[in-house]
């Protein structure tokens, strides 16, 4: 392994068995692990008996911490950037560090692995050949509707992340902006209670008015003009793989 390197390391989104051998080797060999949440990453490192100093790097402190990380790399240290779950930079901290490393001519490589959007897409039953990932919508209603409206006429399958605190409001706005399109909602992917809900946006909206909300959700919505039909089904917790 090269000594001076920024490694972007993908980590499991729920099931620790999804981590790769290469990710584990990288985490064992770098000088520092740069973590979105040191407590959550600490659980991962402890599970695999990895003992490395961590540096907190999250949205709230990234401007302050960024110069230190670049300085460590310039001093010859190797860093592994990880987020709470999934691939660094995908709706998580990472972009600013990557840009700064590129500007400083620091070598960067990615250790590919889990990310929530691809499993949700392929399990949705919606077209997978062309899709647009939009990440987390804005929290405020007016901004969220403007955000959704950008893709009103897009023919591509749309993928969004949403928290349990705003899922119902998101479905209200998605139905208002896109009309009653086929959609799917994934929850607890790779975990014991993994569930995929499928149906029209109106059916899903009605279901989640009473459904207990927990964890983060991936919402997949058919693009404009999709000719398929939505089946109002869900993969039950008993059927999901853990």
UniProtKB/TrEMBL annotation:
GO MF terms held by the record: methyltransferase activity
UniProt subcellular location: Cytoplasm
Pfam families: TP_methylase
Top EC class for this record: transferase
Catalysed reactions, semicolon-separated: cytidine(1402) in 16S rRNA + S-adenosyl-L-methionine = 2'-O-methylcytidine(1402) in 16S rRNA + S-adenosyl-L-homocysteine + H(+)
Keyword rRNA processing appears in the UniProt entry: yes
UniProt xrefs under InterPro entries: 4pyrrol_Mease, 4pyrrol_Methylase_sf, 4pyrrole_Mease_sub1, 4pyrrole_Mease_sub2, rRNA_ssu_MeTfrase_I
Gene Ontology BP, a term: methylation
Domain of life: Bacteria
Enzyme Commission number(s): 2.1.1.198
SUPFAM superfamilies: Tetrapyrrole methylase
Stored Gene3D superfamilies: Cobalt-precorrin-4 Transmethylase, Domain 1, Methyltransferase, Cobalt-precorrin-4 Transmethylase, Domain 2
Alphabetical UniProt keywords: Cytoplasm, Methyltransferase, rRNA processing, S-adenosyl-L-methionine, Transferase
Domain Tetrapyrrole methylase, first and last residues per copy: 5-204
Function: Catalyzes the 2'-O-methylation of the ribose of cytidine 1402 (C1402) in 16S rRNA.
NCBIfam families to which the protein is assigned, alphabetical: 16S rRNA (cytidine(1402)-2'-O)-methyltransferase
The family this protein is said to belong to: Belongs to the methyltransferase superfamily. RsmI family.
Protein name (database record): Ribosomal RNA small subunit methyltransferase I
Species of provenance: Thermanaerothrix solaris
């Amino acid at each position: 392994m090269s000594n001076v390197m920024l490694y972007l390391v993908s980590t499991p989104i729920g099931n620790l068995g999804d981590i790769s051998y290469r990710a584990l080797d990288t985490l064992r060999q770098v000088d520092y692990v740069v973590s979105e949440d040191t407590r959550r990453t600490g659980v991962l490192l402890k599970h695999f008996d990895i003992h490395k100093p961590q540096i907190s790097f999250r949205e709230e402190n990234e401007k302050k911490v960024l110069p230190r990380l670049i300085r460590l790399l310039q001093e010859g240290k190797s860093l592994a950037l990880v987020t709470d779950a999934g691939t660094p930079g995908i709706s998580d901290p990472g972009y600013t560090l990557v840009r700064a490393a590129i500007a400083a001519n620091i070598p960067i490589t990615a250790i590919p692995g889990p990310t929530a959007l691809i499993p949700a897409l392929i399990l949705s039953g919606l077209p997978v050949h062309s899709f647009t990932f939009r990440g987390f919508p804005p929290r405020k209603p007016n901004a969220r509707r403007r955000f959704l409206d950008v893709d009103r006429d897009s023919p591509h399958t749309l993928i969004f992340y949403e928290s349990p605190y705003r899922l119902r409001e998101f479905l209200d706005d998605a139905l208002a902006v896109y009309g009653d399109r086929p959609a799917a909602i994934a929850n607890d992917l790779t975990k014991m209670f993994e569930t995929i809900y499928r149906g029209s946006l109106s059916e899903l909206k009605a279901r989640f008015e009473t459904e207990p909300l927990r964890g983060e959700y991936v919402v997949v919505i058919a693009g404009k003009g999709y000719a398929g039909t939505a089946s109002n089904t869900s993969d039950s917790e008993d059927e999901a793989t853990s």
